[in-house]
C-alpha cells in the first residue's frame, strides 16, 4: 500500500503515513466499482477462514502507544525552542574599549576603522524533546527517558 500524499510505501493496517503524517485510506475504500464485462464471471463461494491469533506482545521494555497499546511506534526528536544568553565583555573588554576610545580621540576617529569595539559573546542552547508517534492511531506523546512506564534507556543509545 502507498501513501496518496507523498507516495511512500506503508504497511497494511497503518492509519497514518510514517513519512508525511497524512491519513492512509484503505485500498478497499479507494477502489472503484469494476467495469462490467461481456462475459460475466461465475460466482465464487467464499470459504470461512480460521481466525488468526493476535500478534505476540512486544518484549518487555518495548514501546507501546499509551492510547491504543500498539507497538508500531516511530520515535522522533523535536525541537521545542531555543534560549540565547549574552555574556558581557569582562574586565579585559572594558580596558580594551577604554584604550580604543582614548586612541580614537587622539587619531580623530581614524583608529575606529581598524580597531573594533568589544561586544561580548552570545551562546544559544536548543531544547529538544523525544516524541513517540503511533503509526496505528496517530497519537503523539513525549517519551521521558528512563522513567517507569516509558521508553527503556536502550532506545536512546
The global form is elongated
Number of helical regions: 2
Question: Would you tell me the structural class of the helices and strands?
Answer: alpha+beta
Cα end-to-end separation: 32 Å
Rg calculated over all Cα atoms: 31 Å
Say how many strands there are.
Answer: 3
Strand line-up of the largest beta sheet: 1-2-3
**Elements, N to C (H/E):** HEHEE
Taken as a percent bin, the fraction of beta residues is 15-25%
Query: Major sheet, described briefly?
Result: 3 strands, antiparallel
Helix content: 10-25%
Unreliable stretches covering 5 or more consecutive residues? 148-157
On the 0 to 100 scale, the average pLDDT is 75
Structure description:
There is one protein chain. The chain is α+β, with helices and mostly antiparallel strands. The chain has helices spanning 27-30, 90-106; strands spanning 73-87, 121-134, 140-142. The protein has a three-stranded antiparallel sheet, with no helix packed on it. A hairpin with a 5-residue loop joins β2 (121-134) and β3 (140-142). It is elongated and about 105 Å long. The two termini are 32 Å apart. Mean pLDDT is 75; it is low at 148-157.
